[in-house]
Amino acid sequence: MSEASHLTFDLDKIGISKGHLIVSKGIDSEALSLPVISLNKGEGPRLLITGGCHGDELEGPIVAQRLVEWLPEVQTCGRVIIVPVLNPPAVQASSRNTPIDGLNLNRVFPGRADGSVTERIADAVSRLLLPMADTIFDLHSFGALWEFAPAATTHPIADPDLMAKTIRMAEAFKLPMTLVWEHPETPGMFDVLAQNQGKVFVCPELGGGTVGAEALAIYEAGVRNALIALGIVKGKADYPTFRQQKSGHTFETRRSSDELKSPARGIFEPRCSVLDKVNQGDLIGILHPMESLPADAVQIRAPGTSIVYAVRSGAYVDVNEGVALLARPLDR
Amino acid sequence: MSEASHLTFDLDKIGISKGHLIVSKGIDSEALSLPVISLNKGEGPRLLITGGCHGDELEGPIVAQRLVEWLPEVQTCGRVIIVPVLNPPAVQASSRNTPIDGLNLNRVFPGRADGSVTERIADAVSRLLLPMADTIFDLHSFGALWEFAPAATTHPIADPDLMAKTIRMAEAFKLPMTLVWEHPETPGMFDVLAQNQGKVFVCPELGGGTVGAEALAIYEAGVRNALIALGIVKGKADYPTFRQQKSGHTFETRRSSDELKSPARGIFEPRCSVLDKVNQGDLIGILHPMESLPADAVQIRAPGTSIVYAVRSGAYVDVNEGVALLARPLDR
Q1: Contact criterion met (CB below 8 Å) for A271 and A284
Q2: A56-95 tens-digit pLDDT
Q3: What CA–CA distance (Å, rounded) separates B327 from B302?
């Protein structure tokens, strides 16, 4: 029998420690070795920061690496565990799902010790890292196919106290958007597992489109703001500048009713930008059936008053593919 | 024997005509049917505008469709032929190359009437459309993996008169960058074929990253500026606003010496933005080997004074993959 998943070092050790989370060998892959950094200043908040759950969302791993550079110098208390890349095979393949078993890591929590590689990663994280934290920032993003404003998101939570605490934590990122996101596909998500254990879990959907220097600076500022709110770092939180504005708004959205879909196959032309306010009938985009002539273009219009929080990059899309996501100010 | 490639309508007809370029059936595919729009106001410049040569560069097809909407109303003279999508199978697959035969359409010109599907497209365009034009705008872009400022580009041309005319035409787009691009891989390119026939060929590399509403507006303004310079449209050309600036600069670059490559496999973190001026030793990006710890990150620095004209989006890259492209002001 192969060696069980384990950490190569003691997370309880005071100071800066670096080592690996070894995910056990299984029938479908060799053991994986995930770098882990522990910044332990003793008493205080216990935070776990993870990136690279999906292999096509690289903002998280990069922001996590940046934290490792500056956080040790300014951390005043508490414990921060950083795992820049949760799913190395998916990142290497630039693929949302793990190429080895085709699974989405964020749908298999708490995982299985004797499962396929994605399930074994989830199991190792759930058993060996999650118990060490009361707050989790799981750094996601929207990938290259969408324009999406930097946002801190949570799904709705049944427990009203935990919901309120989680929204406060998400708002502390001071990103352009805080989003309460009703998502139909919740089983097996990392946040559901953590929230069922009473933990505060925020999932910054740190943008989309090009992963560039300016976007990364906003994301990093968001995480720093959250660390200040937690009391781990001293400093003054401030809204980062996004499109020449410093502001943050809290929205809610339902994936089922607030997603606009392509009416046909063809080239989607975006006609709005993220954070645009739209009223019923406003133009969101145009669908150009490719083999027919331009007169056959189909206009996609807003069904009601809302905010655009994500819009598909111009691309060839299939019928019924999502092309825009809308939201409304959160009704508290 | 199948029907030869042909146009379904007469391009010489005065007024607005719409029809198709039929690319003949071959051993590897059925016939293709490419929508073509002819805007013929008689005497004046003869312009061919093409998009969708590469299936993962959707700015061109979208801007071409927009032209079809407004150009008929404002065109004062000349003939404009618009083909929004040159390579429908590649666009449907969101793939640079044609998925059927694996070929890059922009490497097989002038094509072959009895070749594979990509060669048959090139042949039909070369024989049936190219002779109708003295000026060609082939609307490309840099794709989702790069940040790239909207630019009008040309490769170096041996004939100094045609070179000067082509640079003037490229500069007339008034995009943030005009670029004379020494490219090692010229055989079979559409522009080489057209230039060898004495035609002015400009290849707007209309950006990169997310294909969003703001970027598309800049691209459309660039093409409108060029139409004004040609005298096809009346109006005042103006630099579009890009990153809060209105400006245009003309650069030259050598693909061989001005491309910075990844020193190892890992996650590339961009640390500069397009149009940044850099001096020798300035930080361009960081390469994070993924399985080792952050201390092993490798800094990628500028080899000399230059302008960043393209930078890779944060992503997992292989050793020796391009991560940044540099340029210098054009020495005329």
Answers
A1: yes
A2: 999 999 999 999 999 999 999 999 999 999 999 999 999 9
A3: 11
> B247 touching A, CB under 8 A?
no
Distance from B9 to chain A by nearest Cα, in Å? 14
A58 close contact with B: CB closer than 8 A: yes
Side chain identity at A42, as an amino acid letter? G
A&B contacts, CB < 8 Å:
155
φ, ψ of residue A317 in degrees (nearest 5): -125, 155
CA atoms of B326 and B302, how far apart (whole Å): 9
Model pTM?
A: 0.93
> What 3-state DSSP class applies to A114?
coil
Instruction: For residue B160, give how far its alpha carbon lies from the nearest alpha carbon of chain A (Å).
Output: 38
Query: What digits encode the pLDDT tens for the residues B200-218?
Result: 999 998 888 889 998 999 9
Mean pLDDT of B116-131: 98
Tell me which amino acid residue B77 is: C
**How many CB atoms are located within 10 Å of the residue B294 CB?**
19
CA distance A298 to A289: 8
B313 and A210 in contact by Cβ < 8 A? yes
**Do the chains contact at B288 and A91, CB–CB below 8 Å?**
no
Decide: A5 and A123 in contact? Cβ < 8 Å.
Answer: yes
Short-list B193, B170, B191, CA closest to B180? B170
Q: What are the tens digits of pLDDT across the range B263-277?
A: 999 999 999 999 999
Phi, psi of B86 (to 5 degrees): -75, -30
